[in-house]
TrEMBL record:
Transmembrane segments: 16-35, 42-60, 98-123, 190-216, 237-258, 270-298, 310-328
Chief location category: membrane
Family membership noted in the UniProt record: Belongs to the binding-protein-dependent transport system permease family. LivHM subfamily.
Pfam entry (one): BPD_transp_2
Keywords: Amino-acid transport, Cell membrane, Membrane, Transmembrane, Transmembrane helix, Transport
Example of a GO MF term: transmembrane transporter activity
Listed InterPro entries: ABC_transp_permease (IPR001851), BCAA_transport_permease (IPR052157)
GO cellular component, one term: plasma membrane
Highest classification ranks of the organism: Bacteria, Pseudomonadati, Pseudomonadota, Alphaproteobacteria, Rhodobacterales
PANTHER family: ABC TRANSPORTER ATP-BINDING PROTEIN (PTHR11795:SF442), BRANCHED-CHAIN AMINO ACID TRANSPORT SYSTEM PERMEASE PROTEIN LIVH (PTHR11795)
Protein name: Amino acid/amide ABC transporter membrane protein 1, HAAT family
One example of a Gene Ontology biological process annotation: amino acid transport
């Protein structure tokens, strides 16, 4: 039982990332009808927003510390972060320590801007083009963005630690009644799951309970009729593209302490996220979230050593096998709607 609970926790961790990226993909497809293969790059940019803020906060100057000496008795040169000069040592150290959570505030305007520029500068020209054209141009854009990140940040992963209070692990098993040290789980992975649940809930609440969201949902169902009512639905869809980009970026920001950001991390998640979208049902937001957590949990169980010993390599293909099985039995996915991507 403890092994099962541990794998479920691991699955929720992976599923959170899949669900957040797939949610943004589905928002874009459902509103604009665009298959955006650059969405994984938005996840990557979000992660590097955390890296960038961390580097900004740790910028420092060299000074002489008379209270410290080397073995010859000479005063030592030390690096003093500029954050200490502006905010004082206590607040400055706190800002550096909490760089990743603070990057949430930093990344939101950045990702909204990136989303608006992508949609207005490139993607709007491909609304009425075949999906194959959309895939090619957005995939090319993803490669360009990947190479830009590689040029400025290098090819190696960049460790981006979580705040000190969330480092390490805790005894989850003892908390739920198992023996001590049976289920040890990292704090930050639980934080990531809680954060993902908050973002997913906020997106659904925004679409369900706000006037803006209601108009967007109406436009997703019948764009022409909403336009005939005098509503600028294109402008609202552009804003939704920015929101979808922000969701992907936030997913990347909070994932940085789990998987050190690198220039190809967007591609690593992109294909899996599209599988999640297809399994959940093209254009279905609840389906994307459900499929994300379902496939994350299945992948986690398939990664158990006992399963791999029984079926070698199953952890590498389990998601695709499940996708094939579901699409053979339910061609529109778990919660797909009739007419979406159907001629």
């Amino acid at each position: 039982m403890d092994a099962i609970i541990l794998q479920i926790l691991n699955g929720l961790d992976k599923g959170s990332a899949y669900a957040l990226i797939a949610l943004g993909l589905t928002l874009i497809f459902g509103t604009l009808g665009v298959v955006n293969f650059a969405h994984g790059a938005l996840f990557m940019i979000g992660a590097f927003c955390a890296v960038t803020l961390s580097r900004i906060l740790t910028l420092s100057r060299t000074t002489i510390d008379e209270t410290q000496t080397d073995f010859l008795g000479n005063p030592l040169k030390v690096e003093v972060p500029y954050a200490h000069d502006f905010f004082g040592p206590v607040v400055g150290d706190a800002l550096i320590d909490w760089a990743v959570p603070l990057a949430i505030l930093f990344s939101i305007p950045v990702m909204l801007l990136v989303g608006f520029v992508m949609e207005r500068g490139l993607i709007k020209h491909f609304y009425k083009r075949p999906h194959a054209d959309q895939i090619l141009v957005t995939f090319g854009l993803a490669i360009v963005l990947q190479e830009v990140i590689k040029y400025f940040y290098g090819a190696n992963p960049i460790p981006t630690p979580a705040p000190d209070v969330f480092r390490g692990s805790f005894d989850f098993g003892a908390m739920v009644g198992f023996e001590a040290n049976q289920i040890i789980y990292p704090y930050w992975r639980l934080v990531y799951f809680a954060f993902a649940a908050l973002i997913i809930g906020a997106v659904f609440a925004f679409l369900q309970f706000t006037t803006f969201g209601m108009v967007v949902r109406a436009g997703m169902a019948d764009r022409e009729t909403v336009g005939l009512l005098g509503i600028d639905i294109d402008r609202r869809f552009t804003i939704m593209f920015g929101i979808a980009a922000a969701v992907a970026g936030l997913a990347g920001v909070m994932y940085a302490p789990i998987n050190s950001p690198n220039y190809h991390m967007g591609m690593d998640f992109l294909v899996l996220s599209f599988v999640v979208v297809v399994v959940g049902g093209m254009g279905s937001l609840p389906g994307a979230v459900l499929a994300g957590f379902l496939l994350g949990i299945l992948e986690s169980f398939a990664s158990m050593s006992a399963v791999i010993d029984l079926i070698p390599g199953i952890n590498q293909v389990i998601i695709y096998l499940v996708a094939i099985t579901i699409l053979l039995t339910r061609p529109r996915g778990l919660m797909g709607r009739k007419g979406v991507m159907e001629d």
